Prior knowledge:
The chain is mainly alpha-helical and 713 residues long. The protein contains 29 helices and ten strands. It has helices spanning 18-25, 34-42, 46-56, 58-62, 68-96, 102-107, 110-118, 130-143, 163-190, 202-225, 237-247, 254-276, 287-302, 304-308, 331-360, 366-382, 392-400, 407-423, 432-442, 444-447, 452-459, 461-499, 544-555, 559-586, 589-593, 595-607, 633-648, 660-668, 685-699, and strands at 126-127, 150-153, 158-161, 389-390, 503-508, 515-517, 530-535, 620-624, 652-656, 681-682. The strands form three sheets. The protein has a six-stranded mixed beta sheet with strand order 6-5-7-8-9-10. β9 (652-656), α28 and β10 (681-682) form a beta-alpha-beta unit. Residues 600-611 and 701-713 have low confidence and may be disordered. GO terms for molecular function: secondary active sulfate transmembrane transporter activity. It comes from Eleginops maclovinus. Keywords: Membrane, Transmembrane, Transmembrane helix. This is STAS domain-containing protein. Pfam families: STAS, Sulfate_transp.
Amino acid sequence: MEERRRTGYSVHREILDEGAVDEMAEKSDSKTSLSEKVRKSMRCSGPRLKSCLLGSFPVVSWLPRYSIRENALGDLISGISVGIMQLPQGMAYALLASVPPVFGLYSSFYPVLIYFIFGTSKHISIGTYAVMSVMIGGVIERLAPDSDFMDWNNVTNSSMVNIALRDAERVRVAAAVTFMSGIFQILLGLVQFGFVVTYLSEPLVRGYTTGAAIHVIVSQLKYTFGINPKRFNGPLSLIYTVLEICSIIPQTNIGTLVVSIVAIISLILAKELNAYFSKKLPVPIPVELLGVVVATLISWQVNLQDKYGVDVVGLIPSGLQPPVLPTASLFGQVIGDAFALAVVGYGIAISLGRIFALKYGYKVDSNQELVALGLCNSIGGIFQCFAVSCSMSRTMVQESTGGKTQVAGALSAIIILFITLWIGTLFEDLPKAVLAAIIFVNLHGMMKQFMDIPALWRSNKVDMLIWVVTFILTLLLNPDLGLAAAIGFSMLTVIFRTQLPTYSILGQVPDTDIYRPLEGYNQVKRVPGILIFRSSATLYFANAEMYQDALGEKSGIDITKILSAKKKLEAKRKRHEKKNAKKAAKSNAVDMEEVPERENQQDIAIIEVEDEPDPSLPRAIVLDLSPVNFLDTVGVKALRSIQKDYGEIGIEVVLAGCQTGVVDNLQTGGFFNDKVTKSCLFSTVHDAVLHCQSARTQSQDDAMHYEIPATHL
């Protein structure tokens, strides 16, 4: 392979410390006060008002420029395809949320229209989502369990669940937690808190959604087997539920199990055929809709409910529900769950939104997305919807069928409106086992995420650990507490990595001003008489002590032992001087002139401390602080201690590569004084090395012995 041409350069300038650089660059000390920042943010002008309105109502900016010729056909086909998908998924995910299926249709209508007005992503499909639904289901089962709605039946002499009262209360709970999650999202968006999603790393999100998918599967097993297990809440509830299901498996309804098996196999085969012929078909076959229609027809004709005891959807009222304010008394009981829903829903939506925005070359406003989702949930809560987010499967269909703008989402909402108003009642005989089968088949994408583990093991073991721990915590602690624990663990890994950085001694790459670790490069040479030390992490209270210990270990200097020996020697010298002074006071005049002088010389010679430093020690230490992005007071004290301690044994300590914020931290932390000024700070390691060499040249007669040859500089 032909060697790459290198362009040389030569720079002639003085050695510059931080003070000289500030003077040359004319550093400004003026800082904008808080009151000025507030005044500036509150200032209003015509262009700023227009920008604010367009940012708050994105539909006003893009809809007038909508190209019918380029986008209309693709959006129409995409909207119809997604709307058809919304029907079975909305009803199925309503079961996950423990509310009647019709409320899944409401959740596929109102929020989609609201996102059309306020959302900034052109491709994501807002609506019901499995993870969000199972989280809401957990809240509902905790606050409105079946045991609270038991009525005595005099005919059968047994207790029965009052389904009407139970469902009404569960809808109120779902509306309350959805409304609260929307309020949280709006508030976070208004205070520009969109960056909160950065705490949800990709391994964490994928591990979390995989764990939540297991919760989804377990929660739907009762519909698959036609059994009625007890519902458990709190940590380890998943384990208890699985054990309960295993104990009552003998009570399985055979008719329901057969329906489930046939539905799952049929859906899997149909989806595989759909994928196989995807390139030949203009639009995907609506497999789920066909499954729902066929299952409803068979159930109606065979009368599965009465003959075989197969549980069906039941009454689906036509029309829309009037708006109702959520029950305020429930807010205090769902506030924690609402915040978890707000973070999870936003994290999933913004992640997918950014993927498609990067693919198609437009920008998604993270703060406006928070506000848009918040309005979807808060207004949706008033119309008895449950919390929504973005679905990967529907989004992929919307994008693959030609959807190019938010119009596709609005058209899908119109399809749902048509179904809700006129044909929803036709699905009353749909077996719930078929809806559970739709959920199982739709989760196959999440199950594939287990393949992340070997991939992460090869690329980054810490990310793999985050994935596995998040998955386990989600399983054991449920999705709400599991998310909080997973975020905490993820933050701990960051802290641990800053506590266990890589400490290196740097050397010079020959004939350059570049410095690299000695351990990793064969041609890198140590600078004679100068030790260059670098840590790969920032310096703060959690690792300040380890920084000092690592410096001593890497340099081979036991500073504590040397200082202790020096103090003992100084104390011994003082004792001898005091002893000699007493002898001198008692002697006569002749003895004071002759004898004590010899004795004093002999005594002092024994304890004399040489002014010349130990030749085995470096003459200077350069601390490369280029990886450090901030210093707290403990970090500043650590640097001050290093400079003081090593200075006492004749080793000059200088700092290099300090960022502007770090210099400010040093100044406010009290690092500088009358003796320590910015002359010990240098912009580059090379400047610091040249400074240390020039200082030695001035103080030593044989300075050339320690100088780097000029050709190397």
